């Protein structure tokens, strides 16, 4: 089972906080992990995590980018996509940041569990 760790926890372990572009670049450089960005406007079932990564090779982990309250700016979204980071939906509701992190983690853990 892959490790699930929040970006805040990871940054604190590294004793630094990362800006959005650096976080995206670091995620994209990690070729052994799936890289996803939770985007509230992805309301189509094709953007559910199970559909995006269906049939893909096993991953060692996952980098999850969750935006601030109010969502990502269009420039941020396009930058992440340009690096190959996939956008996903966490469902029909707009969630608070802390709730979105928990929901995304549960969906990721369930995805990895179902790969076995």
Automatic annotation (TrEMBL):
Residue ranges crossing the lipid bilayer per the database entry: none
Broad class of where this protein is predominantly found: cytoplasm
Keyword set, alphabetical order: Cytoplasm, Methyltransferase, rRNA processing, S-adenosyl-L-methionine, Transferase
Hydrolase listed as a keyword: no
Pfam family, one: Methyltrans_RNA
Gene Ontology CC entries for this record: cytoplasm
The protein's Enzyme Commission number: 2.1.1.193
Subcellular location: Cytoplasm
One annotated GO molecular function: rRNA (uridine-N3-)-methyltransferase activity
Domain Ribosomal RNA small subunit methyltransferase E methyltransferase: 16-107
Catalytic activity, as annotated: uridine(1498) in 16S rRNA + S-adenosyl-L-methionine = N(3)-methyluridine(1498) in 16S rRNA + S-adenosyl-L-homocysteine + H(+)
The keyword ATP-binding is annotated on this UniProt entry: no
Family the entry assigns: Belongs to the RNA methyltransferase RsmE family.
UniProt name for this protein: 16S rRNA (uracil(1498)-N(3))-methyltransferase
Native organism: Endomicrobium trichonymphae
